[in-house]
Amino acid sequence: MSLPPEEATELDRLLEANSAYAAARTDDGATASARPRRRLAVVTCMDARIDVFAVLGLHLGEAHVLRNAGGRVTEDVLRSLALSTHVLGVRTVVVMQHTKCGLTGVTDQELRDRTGADLGFLPIDDHEAALREDVEQLLAQPYLSLMTTVAGLIFDVESGEVRPIVTRQRPVSPGPSG
Ligand SMILES: [Zn+2]
After folding, report:
1. Label partner for 103 (CA 20 to 30 A): which of 21, 53, 96, 123?
2. How close is the Cα of 135 to the center of ligand 1, in Å?
3. Rounded to the nearest whole angstrom, what is the distance from the C-alpha of residue 99 to the centroid of ligand 1?
4. CATH number of 30-169
5. For residue 152, which of 64, 59, 71 has the smallest C-alpha distance?
6. What is the pLDDT of residues 27-50, one digit of tens each?
7. Domain map of the chain by residue range?
8. Can you tell me the distance from the alpha carbon of 70 to that of 119, in angstroms, rounded to the nearest whole number?
9. Is the pTM of this model over 0.85?
């Protein structure tokens, strides 16, 4: 069912686009492995300007992409990475924050006032410090011992360039269960 454009809601547009996608589908989504082929997970911001796959030269099936406000390491990122590493074979984790992020130049209190949500918003004062903190937080989790490379990058939304800020490598670990 197709509504005139002025009456179509966003949901209508999504469903219509999906019909076309499903009809023309050529990728092997139904039969491909759920394990990311490059054994990679990327944690990045939800910012609408970041085309993660294009920025990093990734293709469907190659990586897990975990997005949230700021591209910060949260409880939910840890939950996902525990599964990425132990169940789905991920060994490299990249945290990619970006310039002009909405979480810079604001305080937690300002964001609480603005949203009415009594949450920790993880605002970013300094990207390099935030990336180091997030990378260290990942490395500190015993259940993420299967990660062999953890890196923090900054994506410049104006130039499109990515700059590495911190890279940590460590030997392959058998993991907490032996
Ligand atoms: Zn952002």
Report:
1. 53
2. 17
3. 8
4. 3.40.1050.10
5. 71
6. 776 678 899 999 999 999 999 999
7. 30-169
8. 14
9. yes
